[in-house]
Design a protein that fits this description.
This protein is mostly helical and 317 residues long. The chain has 12 helices and no strands.
Length: 317
């Protein structure tokens, strides 16, 4: 197991380098000049040229990338053009907001999907199963921005049960933080609920037909014990992989959700940085998101091996 983890960690290095290079080149192909955006419409060509030289934008792209990479290796991602502060500092200020939203959305998807998936599987092809399947398909099909705006209209405008947007840190007011969290959490987690639910249902239907489940019935065990102890334990193993893959979807969805609900997280920072052509922030945000995704998937693979003794990452297995 240790050698497998080391190999995976080593493999992350070239992937991170490739991601950083591709993102660096792509963001510089986007039309627009950060110096012109920063100085405004009244800026003269001389002022723009001077600022470009100050920011190092007048150098060849490969030279800019090598200089940026040399600093990034030491944890220095440069200085934000828009915010006029170190990029890493700006990310650290906003990362807890996105982490809170992401963890809440994942928990929401798991807590809703597991019981509904079990109930749907134990009543396969019934009315409840059909209703759950149709609902999960709708949850997958509805875009996040449509769902978010719909929730705002219903629960913030008409019912006025939750605020339409804004963010209050948990440390300042826990109750207000939870009220602000509900609608963004549902918006970001609904798609994951649909995927997780269908995975749990499919796994449960397959496992309930296994011989050891028939043996459990023959022993006279009660339904809750058979469903939630014997069957669900094995049905959750594929879900672990799905949850790991959903980290990337949640990081991408946070861009839309944080913009709609005015949350000051990494998603909102990425959007504002794109609009202002803030290259250092865009580069660092995408790279750190990719690293987070790779590390989470490594943890999922390790956890999968720990939970299922049939899986071994040893040499030759």
């Amino acid at each position: 197991m240790a050698s497998y983890i080391v190999r995976r960690l080593i493999f992350i290095v070239p992937v991170a380098l490739l991601v950083s290079f591709i993102v660096f080149m792509l963001i510089h192909l986007v039309p627009g000049d950060p110096a012109a955006v920063l100085l405004g419409e009244d800026a003269t060509p001389q002022n723009i040229a001077a600022l470009r030289k100050e920011l190092g934008l007048d150098q060849p792209l490969l030279t800019q990338y090598v200089l940026w990479l040399g600093q990034a290796i030491h944890g220095n991602f440069g200085r934000s053009i828009q915010l006029q502060q170190p990029v890493f500092e700006a990310i650290l200020q906003r990362a807890p907001v996105t982490i809170e939203l992401g963890i809440a959305s994942l928990l929401f998807s798991i807590v809703i999907a597991i019981p509904l998936g079990v109930v749907s599987a134990t009543r396969a092809n019934g009315r409840l199963d059909t209703t759950v399947n149709v609902t999960s398909l709708l949850g997958t099909a509805i875009p996040g921005f449509v769902l978010g705006l719909g929730l705002i209209v219903v629960f913030a405008v008409f019912i006025r049960l939750f605020p339409p947007g804004g963010y209050v840190p948990f440390s300042e007011d826990p109750a207000a933080n939870l009220r602000d969290l509900i609608l963004p959490m549902i918006t970001l987690g609904t798609g994951a609920v649909a995927v997780n639910l269908r995975q749990v249902r499919a796994s449960m239907i397959e496992i309930l037909s296994q011989d050891y489940i028939r043996t459990a019935w023959a022993k006279g065990l009660h339904k809750p014990r058979v469903y939630y102890i014997h069957a669900l334990r094995n049905a959750l193993l594929p879900l672990l992989t799905i949850v790991g893959l959903q980290v990337g979807a949640i990081l991408g969805g946070a861009v839309i959700v944080e913009t709609i609900f005015q949350w000051p997280g990494l998603g909102a920072l990425a959007v504002s940085s794109l609009l202002s052509k803030d290259y250092p922030v865009i580069q660092a945000t995408v790279l750190l998101s990719a690293l987070s995704y790779m590390f989470v998937n490594l943890l999922v693979d390790v956890g999968y091996g720990l939970l299922d003794p049939r899986i071994s990452y040893g040499k030759g297995r």
